[in-house]
Specification:
Blueprint: H1 3-16, E1 25-30, E2 37-42, E3 45-51, H2 59-73, H3 80-90, H4 93-106, H5 121-132, E4 141-144, E5 154-157, E6 162-165, H6 176-191, E7 195-197, E8 200-202, H7 206-212, H8 218-226
Parallel strand pairs: 1-3, 4-6
Antiparallel strand pairs: 2-3, 5-6, 7-8
Helix pairs in contact: 1-2, 2-3, 5-6
Length: about 230
Amino acid sequence: MSPKLSEILHEAFREVRPRTLAPLMHIRFYPFVSINNTIRLRQGELYIRLSDLLEGAPEAVLYSIVYILLAKLYRKPIDRIHSGRYRRHLASHDLTAKARLVRQMRGRKHIRSARGHHYHLEEIFEELNRRFFHGLMGRPQLTWSKNHSRRSLGHYDPAHNTIVISRVFDDPRVPRYAVEYILFHEMLHLKHPVKLRGTRRCVHSREFHDEEKMFPELELARKFLRVL
């Protein structure tokens, strides 16, 4: 534990629990696959691991991260100054680019197949590309998920340039327009990356919503998803 990190940790602990004697505490940077930070209380000792992507971050940012972790552990309210400072740092261009590169190098994306038993994602992508993007969108990796997840119906992973669609849609009982809508939604994420507005991440921008309304069977698809 570096002296500076130790100093930050003890100062943050005093702010979160000013009338409590600090336990033995350990803090270090750790090579997570993505930007991740953890805190554990084991046998009366605190263990904090910060993503090594945060090495070199301003001391104020590191302090805010440690403060947030301690506040969550001890169920204390989180000051907006600290949460806002951390979100702004996470959204910075340099850190975003670095995180994406590290995920590519350290993480493994399990690509199975775009060809399902009933639907072929590459064929649907090319059709949607022609209909809505003038055929100009570069095709990312496309794959069905391993499991029939109903919690995560689809997602776009920018680090691996991959769209994953839940295998629950690869079923003859699922209308084609529902598969098309889910894939179209993720293609819009490819076109409209997440942006920061103030201290808030904007996942679905106005432009995103406006283009999504261009999908002809939008309401039918949403109705089907509500009962899936």
